Amino acid sequence: MKPSIIELPGTSNRLACVLKSSEMKDAVAVMASRNELTNLRSFEFVNTIVAERLSKPLPKKSEAIFSDRPITEAIILEKIRPVLLVQNGKYAVARVPEVEAAIAPHRHKLAHKINAVGRIELSQHDSMSWCGTGWLLADNLIVTNRHVAELFAQASGRKFRFRLNQRGRMVSARIDFREEHNIAENNEFGIGEVLWIAENSDAAPDMAVLKVRSSEGLPEPLEIAGKDAISDQWIGVVGYPAYDDRNDSSLMKQIFENIFEVKRFAPGRIVTTDKNQWYLTHEATTLGGNSGSAVLDLENGKVVGLHFGGSFKETNYAVKASVLKKIIARRSWIPVSRRELEIQDEAFHDRRRTLQDMRDRAGFDAMFLGSGKSVILPKTGSSHDVLDVAFENNALPYTHFSIVMSKSRRLAIVTAENIDGNLKIKLKRNDTWGYDPRIDKNLQVGHQDFYGPQPFDKGHLVRRENPGWGTTVEEARLGEDDTFIYTNAAPQMPGLNQKTWLSLEDYVLDNVRTHGFKACVFTGPIFKKDDPIHAEVQIPLEFWKVIVTLDAETEKLLTSAYLLSQESIMPTEGFRFGPFKTYQIPVSHIEKEADIKFSKTVREADVFHGTPAETLAVSMRFLEITGPADVVLKKI
Hints:
Elements: H1 11-18, H2 22-33, H3 44-54, H4 63-66, H5 70-80, E1 84-87, E2 90-91, H6 97-103, H7 111-114, E3 117-123, E4 130-137, E5 141-144, H8 146-149, E6 153-156, E7 159-162, E8 172-176, E9 188-197, E10 208-212, E11 234-239, H9 249-255, E12 264-273, E13 279-282, E14 294-297, E15 303-310, E16 316-320, H10 321-330, E17 379-380, E18 396-397, E19 401-405, E20 412-420, H11 447-451, E21 457-460, H12 473-482, E22 489-492, H13 499-502, H14 504-511, E23 518-526, E24 533-534, E25 537-538, E26 542-550, E27 557-565, E28 581-585, H15 587-594, E29 596-597, H16 600-604, H17 612-617, E30 623-624
Antiparallel strand pairs: 1-2, 1-12, 3-4, 3-8, 4-5, 5-10, 6-7, 8-9, 9-10, 11-12, 11-14, 12-13, 13-16, 14-15, 15-16, 17-29, 18-19, 19-20, 20-23, 21-22, 23-26, 24-25, 26-27, 27-28, 28-30
């Protein structure tokens, strides 16, 4: 499987890379002159062609060598890029002395590394008994490709489950670390959990993470290299190449000696690495079953890539080590950003705002819902170091919302916004991040000092679209632009802003008969003393949201409250598995955890107020939100 963003180079480019070594070039020339390249009658002409071409200097342009000779390339690759059988962890001897000289010193020390690569096998699948390769990391983790895992697993909400076959039975998976030629023993371990499958997009690596049930008897796990591989570096691809009828059958049978679906070691070199992409290319010989193979550095046996695709006799692709390491170290089973994968984006520039630009902001309106109902900002508790500003309630006013800032944390304590669904105007996103000139820059967390160099997104507390309403496009645009001020940002891991969290306001407005299709929304982080510190910024791990509307029929307030945690996906040295979660909780729990106090009318309007759900919250038993059907909008 190849991502659509990749433009395949010609097959001759790969061959030119192989023949850059003068020793290899000389060795092939000698074999050609002795008619040793192939023993198949139909390919006898190859020996003559290769001998003639290699007797001349290597052209600068590789296309001049074998521009229309794919068969020639395949035969050469059989000799100098072999696929060696593995038995008892050791790979066979290469027939070409120059190749053997390159790989022989590593044979014994790589034996235990090779043992950590296995074949992923299936039970109850409709058509497949195995589907690819995987390899072991610490903590019982198995790394493979997305397109391999999708054959037996699929997303279910924010989690993943095993698929059902045509008879309604669940498919199960296991990994066998043997499956070696003429070796009867196996070393199988059941796959107990599918932790993560990358989204199917060009920006996401072709990668999945599984977990075996038991650690007893597992081989020694592999280690991901600390640095990315470089061009021409020697590597070995360990996996299970399978017969592929898309390729020339006679060539495959000759190169693989008609032995497929067992563990192989394919030596080769790195062709290209690009800091702007999440993959590298290599020129080892592979087939379809190699999907998920470990690409090992011959010098130290560390993983420099996760092979995910390519074409027989063409360039191969692998997820590079830095990307693998970031995802695994983070334990964040969520989509990743281009910045986190070190794919360069356009240069960032702050939008400069002046005091004149920020004049006449009305801010949050407590009487916004109408019918004489007042919804005031919550009061902050004694644990907060509220920043004094020259505005009412120490709240910075913006277009349709206000923000109360923490002086010590340099982040918002609470945001309060008015949403008018009837006056909503759809606008094209226009990122204009910058500082609020009404307070000191040192009291705001900006791009250059934090978000740029650190692995965090600028998470909108007031959602971009929410203030984008008004009687004119200019008013709506001003509302959206104001959300791109650093006072409205909070450090969040990439992917935290899932639809379940961000669409809560819309869902409430769509499913409650509100008075005037309006809502007041309060959002903020939960500050704790032990929140982790990154680059002198203390990162909140949980966020809360309270939505207040007015019922159209009864004209009574309706309040619902939610909690989102990013604790399980923070970049720490510890291991915290599982995605972030969203919960619906009582307002009283938010008041306790965030050290704020809502008005009595807001608290009593809580759909959980005085219900069993409020009692259960004391023991930290919350209602998890996995989809719209889970949201409670009436008293229960």
